[in-house]
Amino acid sequence: MLGLAIAGVAFATYWLSNRAFDAGRGDLFYLADAFLHGHTWIAQALGPNDVILLGGHIYVPFAPFPALVLMPLVAFTGPVTADQWESGINAGLAAAAVGLAWWASGRIGVRHIGDRLMLAILLGFSTQIWWVTTRGGVWHTGHLVATILLLVLIGELFGRRRPVLLGLLVGAAFLTRPPTAFAAPAVALWLADAGSLGMARQSLAERFNGLPWRGWVLLALGLAPALAGFFAYNVLRFGSPLESGYALATLPDWLQALRAQGLFSFAHVRMNVDYLFLKLPALIPEFPWFQPDGLGMSVFITSPGLLLAARAPWRDRRAWLLLLAAVLVLIPTLLYYGGGWLQYGYRYFLDSVPFVWALVALGVVHRGPLRWWARTLIWFGILVGIGGVYWAYHL
C-alpha cells in the first residue's frame, strides 16, 4: 500500500509539472490507431522532423512497442482524445516507474522504509525521468515505457529469474528503446552460477556441462518474438529487415550533417561523452541563475546520487553484471549521431540508469543505510530537477 501511495504522490507531482506543456508529438497514439486499422503508416505528419515520406505514406521511425501498449486505450478513446490526454498518460507511466522502483528495491533486499523511499525518489526525481515526463512527446514516452520494463526485468533478476520472462522483457525493451537489447549478454550471464563460469576447480568439460543451456535456450525463445517482430515490421514498411527508418527520417540540417557521418560512428563519441559527463550550464544574472542550452548537461550535476553506485559490493558478481549491462547499453548510445536534443541533461543515459540505480540499491543492502551525505547527493539532483521543470517551459 505504501508503494501505491508513493506512486500516487509521484503522479500528482508529474501531472502538475507537465499538464501545461503540449509537445505536439503524440505519434504513438496515431501509430496505435494505424495498427488497429491494419497498417503501419499514420495519416499526417505531426512535425517537420522525425517523419518518413515514402511511397505516398507517412511513417515514423520510433520503435513500436509503446504503440502496442497504447492500442487498448486508443481503441476506446480514439487517437485524438488519447493525444489530448498525453500529459496524464506520461505522468501515470512515470509514477508507475517510481512505484516499481519501490518494489524492485525490496526485491534487491532493501528493507528500511526510508532507504526504499529515497531510492524511489532518486529514480523518479533525481534523474531525467522528471524532465522527459514534463516535456512529453513520442521520444520521451518511449523512455518511460523502457524504464518500466527494465525495472520489472531487474526485479525478476533478483527474484525467480524465469528465463522466458526475462527474454520477453528484454525483447519488449528492445522494441521500445533499441539500445536496451545490449543488456541481453549480462542477463544471460546472470542465469549462470559462479562455478559454471570457471570460478571453481573443474575441468573444461565439467564447466561446459554446468552452463545453463536450458535457461539460455528459454531466454532466446523469450527474445525471439521481439526480434522477429522487429524484422517483419521493417520489411512491411521499408522492404528491408535492417532498415528501422532512422536513416530515412527528416531532420534539421545540423542533425542531418551529423547523420551523414554515420548513424553509428566513433565520430560521435566525443560529442556524446561531452553531453553526458562534461557539459555545464551557462551562468546568468537573473533567476534561476543558470541556463542549459538544450544539448546536454553533465550527469554529475543532474544525477549525482547515481555516484552511490560505487558503494555496490564488488565481490558480488551481480554488481559486475549490473555494471556490464549499464555499459553495454551505453555503447550504442555513445556511437549514435542524435545526441538527444532537445534535452536537460543527457536523456539517452536513461537506458542505462535502471542498472546503475540497482547498483545503488545493492550498495544499500551491503553497506548499510544511506547516510546524510548520500541523501544530500539525491536532494541536490532533485533541486536540479526542479530547475528542469522551469526550463521545460522556457528553453
What number of structural domains do the residues give?
1
* Run of helices and strands: HHEEHHHHHHHHHHHHEEHHHH
Structural class, judged by helices and strands? mainly alpha
Tally of strands: 4
Low-confidence stretches: none
Strand order of the largest sheet: 1-2
What is the gist of this entry?
With 395 residues, this protein is mainly α.
Detailed description of the structure:
This protein has 395 residues and is mostly helical. It has one domain (2-392). It has helices spanning 2-18, 27-36, 65-77, 79-84, 86-108, 113-125, 129-135, 138-157, 163-174, 184-190, 204-210, 213-238, 253-259, 269-278, 299-302, 317-335, 353-367, 372-392, and strands at residues 52-54, 57-59, 282-283, 290-291. Strand 1 (52-54) and strand 2 form a beta hairpin. Helix 7 packs antiparallel against helix 8 (138-157) and helix 16 runs antiparallel to helix 17 (353-367). The radius of gyration is 21 Å and the shape is globular. The model has no long low-confidence stretch (mean pLDDT 95).
Keywords:
395 residues; mainly alpha; two-stranded antiparallel ribbon; two-stranded antiparallel sheet; 4 strands; 60% helix
Topology, element by element:
Elements: H1 2-18, H2 27-36, E1 52-54, E2 57-59, H3 65-77, H4 79-84, H5 86-108, H6 113-125, H7 129-135, H8 138-157, H9 163-174, H10 184-190, H11 204-210, H12 213-238, H13 253-259, H14 269-278, E3 282-283, E4 290-291, H15 299-302, H16 317-335, H17 353-367, H18 372-392
Antiparallel strand pairs: 1-2, 3-4
Helix pairs in contact: 1-5, 1-7, 2-3, 5-6, 5-7, 5-8, 6-17, 6-18, 7-8, 7-18, 8-9, 8-17, 9-12, 10-16, 16-17
